[in-house]
Amino acid sequence: MINAYTEDQLVEQPAIGLFEDLGWETLSAVEEIFGTAGTLGRATKMEALLTGRLRAALEKLNPALPPEAITSAMDELTRNRSAMSPAAANREVHSLLKDGVRVKVSSSEPSPQPSPGGRGREGGTRIERVRVIDWENPEANDFLLVSQMSIQGPLYLRRPDLIGFVNGLPLVVVELKKPGVPAQQAFTDNLTCYKADIPALFWGNAIMIASNGTDSRVGSPTADWERFFEWKRIASEDELRRVSLEVMT
To answer: How far apart are CA 53 and CA 45, in angstroms?
Structure first.
């Protein structure tokens, strides 16, 4: 009987396997060890992103930039946005992910005119743009799927089923239910709760997924359930329609 099996056995572990097949590194945070040498490098449960992986990715994607530029970009990406509306915070971080982070770097050759590529000089500094994600070469990025990672919000502790980190930033949140339990329940009972209780997880979020394995829906962090949709095909519109977590992943 289906009730004899747990959600973890029926849906979560197969989902983790799908991500592994796509080349993602996977880790469980059920028994997370904290500290820089710990499971995820987090100091506390209040951290919603992985700063160690983020810094390593920025250094890799921007080898010509000095450490001060990387630090400035880190400061902007990890800045507390709790005073902003969720939509405004997400829009701001989305811009940083898409276009990079503009930072000032000390320069010995000041010039008042910016270059066409976005670099310029202001007095004793020059403007550089720190790339956060390599959009042209996906394999150059760091992909990590973490299961059961606890995050402490202002009032409540929450633990999403799966969080997909790209270069240390939580861009994907997946909430799962057992087959037979409506996927909408993952949205109503869990994802909606997470957005209210651990908002920092969604400042840079790009995709939220609610699934019971067979019925899977994807939406943005500002979408209501009516705007969560199936992802029916993988490669082309000529494929047969399939609705499953495998296709969506």
So the answer is: 16
Tokens of 15: 């989902």
pLDDT for 238 equals 76
8 Å CB contact between 104 and 72: yes
In the structure encoding, which two tokens stand for residue 116, read together? 């066409």
pLDDT at 246: 87
Collapsed DSSP state (helix, strand, coil) of residue 103:
strand
Q: What is the CA radius of gyration of the chain?
A: 20
pLDDT digits (tens, 9 = 90+) for 175-185: 999 999 999 99
The 8-class DSSP code of residue 37 comes to T
Is residue 112 within 8 A of residue 125, CB to CB? The reply is no
Distance CA 143, CA 24 (A): 5
Q: What are phi and psi of 11, to 5 degrees?
A: -125, -45
Question: What's the rounded mean pLDDT across residues 43-66?
Answer: 97
Give strand pairing partners of 218: 209, 229
Same domain, residue pair 38 and 149 = yes
DSSP state of 188: I
Same domain membership, residue 145 and residue 37: yes
Identify the domain containing residue 163 by its residue range. 2-49+138-248
The torsion region of residue 182 among left (phi > 0), alpha (psi -120 to 50) and beta comes to beta
- Tell whether 16 and 107 lie within a shared domain: no
DSSP 170: E
pLDDT digits (tens, 9 = 90+) for 141-173: 999 999 999 999 999 999 999 999 999 999 999
